[in-house]
Design the sequence.
């Protein structure tokens, strides 16, 4: 069961794998943030995860996250929106989330900027989500739209571009996912050398339970891990 010690144990096991992957890649484990993906988990389990040391929480639905953030607060934790954001949920997302990983259209970027203005939010850190497999059904902008999206975000008043995010097509074999991770890093490196990221080198939000070690080998700085921490979702 998901008591504090079992969740703490699983978090420790993931952090150990993060360490191992970072070491293999000649990187520091500190460069990798673990985002515990708490979507579908009840509030009490998320509370327990926070008590067990989870600091960054990932949610994919605004409405579901609202209940959790309202109940658990955002002092001890940072909340990341990792799911697609519909226009009619954007205002609540601006009020609730610390970071939005899923900016994938110019219209959404402009809307978020305007809502920050209306909600008196000085700055909203965002990542641009790319769909690198050109799957029409996947969320994320195609690579060809990256440049205009970056321009829109960086010309906005309130959005702070902090990195890129992707969810590659699912494959049981993470080695087949590696090229997508590598491509995202290449794109990040080009943007970073052009000084497009607010402050730092540019985050790479990539890697989930079954493939985060490979993502870290390819440069991930934010891994989004759900099942490996909380068990299978209902
Ligand atoms: C659900 C989800 C995850 C976590 O997936 P697991 O396989 O449970 O680790 C990561 N990223 C996104 C965008 C998700 O929707």
Sequence:
């Amino acid at each position: 069961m998901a008591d504090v010690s079992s969740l703490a144990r699983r978090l420790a096991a993931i952090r150990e794998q993060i360490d191992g992957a970072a070491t293999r890649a000649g990187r520091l484990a500190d460069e990798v943030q673990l985002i515990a993906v708490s979507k579908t988990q009840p509030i009490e389990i998320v509370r327990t995860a926070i008590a067990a040391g989870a600091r960054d929480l990932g949610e994919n639905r605004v409405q579901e996250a609202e209940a959790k953030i309202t109940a658990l607060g955002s002092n001890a934790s940072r909340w990341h929106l990792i799911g697609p954001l519909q226009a009619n949920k954007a205002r609540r997302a601006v009020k609730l989330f610390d970071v939005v990983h899923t900016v994938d259209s110019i219209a959404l970027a402009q809307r978020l900027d305007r809502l920050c203005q209306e909600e008196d939010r000085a700055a909203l850190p965002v990542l641009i989500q790319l769909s690198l497999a050109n799957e029409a059904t996947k969320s994320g902008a195609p690579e060809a739209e990256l440049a205009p999206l970056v321009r829109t975000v960086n010309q906005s008043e309130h959005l702070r571009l902090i990195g890129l995010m992707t969810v590659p097509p699912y494959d049981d074999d993470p080695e087949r996912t590696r090229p997508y991770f590598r491509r995202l890093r290449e794109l990040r490196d080009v943007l970073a050398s052009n000084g497009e990221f607010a402050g730092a080198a540019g985050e790479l939000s990539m890697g989930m339970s079954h493939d985060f070690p490979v993502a870290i080998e390819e440069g991930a700085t934010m891994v989004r891990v759900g099942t490996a921490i909380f068990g299978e979702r209902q």
